[in-house]
Design a protein that fits this description.
By secondary structure, the protein is of the alpha/beta class. Helices cover 18% and strands 31% of the residues. Bound molecules: flavin-adenine dinucleotide.
Amino acid sequence: MLPKVQSPTSRRMITLKVLRTTRTTRNFTTVTLGGPELEHLLPTGFDQTVRLFFPRAGQSGLTMPTLSNEAWMAQVLLLPKSRRPRVRNYTVRRVRAELGELDIEFALHGDTPAGAWAMGASPGDPAGIFDMGLTYLPPPDTVGQLLVADESAVPAVLAILEDAPDSLVAEVFLEVPETADIRKDVVAPEGVRVHWLARDGSADLPGRLALDAVKDAALPQGRSYTWIAGESGLATGVRRHLVRDRGVPKADVAFYGYWRHGRSSPG
Ligand SMILES: Cc1cc2nc3c(=O)[nH]c(=O)nc-3n(C[C@H](O)[C@H](O)[C@H](O)COP(=O)(O)OP(=O)(O)OC[C@H]3O[C@@H](n4cnc5c(N)ncnc54)[C@H](O)[C@@H]3O)c2cc1C
């Protein structure tokens, strides 16, 4: 059975400041965070995830939990709403330890708490992170890989490809809102084929295009490792197809619902 998550060996609540924002494309923006406390993050690369804390609209500052164990969530929920921070899951897109900088890349999707915060973030604004570990854990004996993501997990897959060994052989399906979101500068080993899929105004829910593309695709032969993340229907749909229609052992598929259509994240 694949391990589901590699938890950090040690971690603590980290408070940082926004250094700058960079609009990647129309539907993505990158917020760069930094500050002396960044030295307390142990960067692992790949899809390392953090809980991102930021102020609610109207709050003048950020109240971070003081507990760095599992009880932090209860501590946050006990705060009055006037002081309770927003909390969302985000991938560490890149760390430049020598510069004390960490990038988080947001897929924008309307006027939501995280999107509005990222779009309005200015240098000096506070934000907090708490390391949640990583889930991309291919067993060493796999021959090929299949990576599938919608826009919410594009930052994770791009980070995975940047950190991958030169020997990686993989088929990668990345769905984005528009053709303009397709990256021309993907850094990946030679054996990786990236298939970009753009919805370009189609009424389909995010993830549908990627699911259909995987169903039509020739997939890696031999024992493979699959990592899927995005809207929960994409994650479960691809897994179901691989297991039922392609005979892939359940144990070789790691799948993660990053968000659910019509449901806000708690916090
Ligand atoms: C481990 C992990 C890592 C993640 N890494 C990233 C990352 O690096 N970058 C990133 O952009 N996202 C990432 N996500 C997804 C992100 O946490 C969710 O999209 C989150 O819901 C965004 O919060 P919000 O405040 O924008 O929207 P919410 O308040 O949670 O939701 C508001 C509405 O927006 C909808 N919605 C939420 N997300 C999306 C979306 N992506 N597209 C369209 N509609 C959406 C919801 O269904 C709801 O109707 C990650 C999630 C997980 C679990």
